[in-house]
Amino acid sequence: MIRKVVNSYDVHVHGQLIRMVQGNEVRCTAGDYDMEKLLLNEPRGSKYMNLLVYDIEKEKLHVTVKTHFQVHNCEILLKGLVNTLIERGGLPYRDTYEVIYDEENIILSRNHLNISDLSHVDGWKGAYAVDGRMIGLLETEVVLSIENISEIKRRLTAQNDWDYTVYLNGSSQVVIDGDGEMVAHPVHEVLSVLHEQNRWGSIRHFNGAKVDIDAFEREYGHPFHFISNSQFYIDDTDIYTEGFIIK
User: Fold this and answer.
1) In sequence order, what are the beta bridge partners of 128?
2) Distance of CA 101 to the CA centre of its chain
3) Out of 33, 57, 199, 209, which could bridge 205 as a Cys pair, Cβ 3.0 to 4.6 Å?
4) Does this model's pTM top 0.85?
C-alpha cells in the first residue's frame, strides 16, 4: 500500500547534484521509512547527492542541507535553491533574498545567483587558508583521468590535517576531502587557490566541468541545469526503508 507521495526536483551545477524538497513533504511519518534518507539515496543512489529541505516563512527561506559526508559549496547550493524557486514561481522577483541556514542569515542578490566571487587566499609553499578551511596542493605522477579512477583511488589519499588535498598533474586535478572521499565536482575554496597560484582563465575539474574565471572581477559563473521533477512513492512492499547508495 502506498503510504505517501513525496515531490521533489533535481538540478546540478558543474556536476554537483542538488535535490530540493519543501519541508512539509518530509515531515509526515510513514511507518519505519526515513524520508530524508530515501530522498538522498533514491533513485540513482549517488553518494554525492545534496538534499535541500526548505520552508518559506515571512519572505525568508529556512534551509537545511543533508548529504552523505560533508557539505561542499554551501552558498552555491543555496543560490541554486533560490534561483530555481524564482524560475518555478515559488519566490517573487526581489533584489535580494534572505536565507537562514545553520543559524546564519545569508543575503543573496538576485543578480548574483549564477556567479560567485573568488575568496581571499592566505598561505604559501603548498598550504593555504581559504574561508577558514585548509587546502594543500601536491604534485603527482599519477594520470588524473576518469579512465584511471582505480589507480587514483588506490594511490591518492587525504594528507595531514587539510580540509582538501588537491593533487595536480599538469592542468589536471583531483580533490580529496578531509573524510578521505574524492570530491566529484569543483570546490569553491580549491578554485580560489588554483586561480591565485596559477592565474588560470579557466579551470577544468576531474569530472570534465570547465569553470571560467573572470580575473578582473575575481568571480566565476556556475549555471544551474534542471534534471527532473520526481515523485517518490512510499510503499509498504518496498524492502528498502532507506533506499540504496552506489559507492
Assistant:
1) 123, 135
2) 15
3) 209
4) yes
166 contacts 94 by C-beta, under 8 angstroms: no
pLDDT of residue 13: 96
SS3 string, the chain, reads CEEEEEEEEEEEECCEEEEEEECHHHHCCECCECHHHHHHHCCCCECCCEEEEEEEECCEEEEEEEECCCCCCHHHHHHHHHHHHHHCCCCCCCCEEEEEECCEEEEEEHHHCCEEECCCCEEECCEEEECCEEEEEEECCCCCCHHHHHHHHHHCCCCCCCCEEEEEECCEEEEEECCCCEECCCCHHHHHHHHHHHCCCEEECCCCCEEEEECCCCEEECCCEEEEEEEEEEECCCCCCCCCCEC
Amino acid present at 84: T
Mean pLDDT by 10 residues, the chain (247 residues): 85 95 82 82 82 94 94 97 95 96 95 96 92 96 91 93 93 92 94 90 88 93 93 81 74
At residue 247, the pLDDT reads 63
Pairing of strands 219-221, 210-214: antiparallel
Check residue 120 and give its pLDDT. Answer: 96
> Hey, what's the cell of 224?
544551474
The neighbouring-strand residues paired with 21 are 53
**Interstrand relation of 182-183 and 172-177 (parallel, antiparallel or unpaired):** antiparallel
